[in-house]
Amino acid sequence: MSHKSAKDFFRPLAVGAPAPLREIPARPSRAIHFFDPSNEKMAAKIPAMVGTVDVLLGNLEDAVKADNKVAAREGLVRIAQSTDFGPTQLWTRINALDSPWVLDDLTTLVPAIGDKLDVIMVPKVQGAEDIHYVDRLLAQLEAKAGLTRPILIHAILETARGVANVEEICGASPRMQGLSLGPADLAADRKMKTTRVGGGHPGYLVRQDPPRGEDGTAQVDAQRNVFQQDLWHYTIAKMVDACATHGIYPYYGPFGDIADVVACEDQFRNAFLLGCVGTWSLHPKQIAIANRVFSPSVEDIAHARRVVAAMGDGTGAVMIDGKMEDDASLKQCLVLVELAEQLAEIDPELKKLYDAIPAAEEA
Ligand code: GLV
Ligand code: MG
Hints:
This protein is an alpha/beta fold. It has 2 domains: 240 residues, Alpha-Beta Barrel (TIM Barrel), CATH 3.20.20.60; 64 residues, no CATH class. It has 14 helices and 12 strands. The protein has an 8-stranded parallel sheet. It has a two-stranded antiparallel ribbon with strand order 7-8. Helix 3 packs parallel to helix 4 and helix 10 runs parallel beside helix 11. The longest helix is centred in the last third of the chain and has 20 residues. It binds glyoxylic acid and magnesium ion. Magnesium ion binds next to helix 8.
């Protein structure tokens, strides 16, 4: 492996390209709403969605038929050029790096709408080499187009090799904005035996121990509780650690059972609790779920503010409602309070809710 000097990471990769960012801004991105720009009915609804969702993502990859790849790319250019996105971020998901479409995706999108694109999502990333390829190409295209702001890269974690290489992927470029779990492709690539897009599986469970008969024998046929387990726990936890290590943001991905809003909410909440900042939305009704789940609750903020007020200079320990709070729980509370402040800036309804919380008393 060849090594690059640390200071060279922040040099543009093409003469005249914008300087790489030293920190990835924490922009709210609770829901990344996917739309197919080749679907005219769907595309027509996009301008009205500005301001109702944190991220709109024009999808060019899977779910867009091969015959529609060019129409999707051109549709995205048209929508981006004719829409003022205001506070809403515009992302795209380009085709995979081993596809015949991706080069045209990049060479078309960057000059045409590079000034509007915040983040490019790269699917099926295997290792740092995939990020290096896109990184250099983006720098060349940005320089040629005279862009003043670097376009960021988001990688989908959806290959076994990508999971094995997750840390080097996160650290491969100062453009790295975050990672999403891609449970559908990841399941296929790992040869998992599921047939769904995200979520749990009734076969993946643990069962309560069997009761014992009077003679001490295990009654294996007795009624016992079973607890469905989370197929994605390991990957999400690994992704969260890699992202936190590199100062970038982890996301859940697609939840394919659109009708099961309850299980969708559970899956999103697990990801939120483990450290993810957002998720994908494949249907407008998943936007509301994501916004609810990935915004701290009023109860959490009320409690967090009490801890912050009671902890004063942050050292020592206090008792609140019979529970010990110290430096470490204070830091957890600050994560929630800071997130609430960022979200309140762009979401007036949330701001009202958080502002209505009675002031916490100092200890
Ligand atoms: C997303 O792209 C997935 O494969 O789950
Ligand atoms: Mg995929």
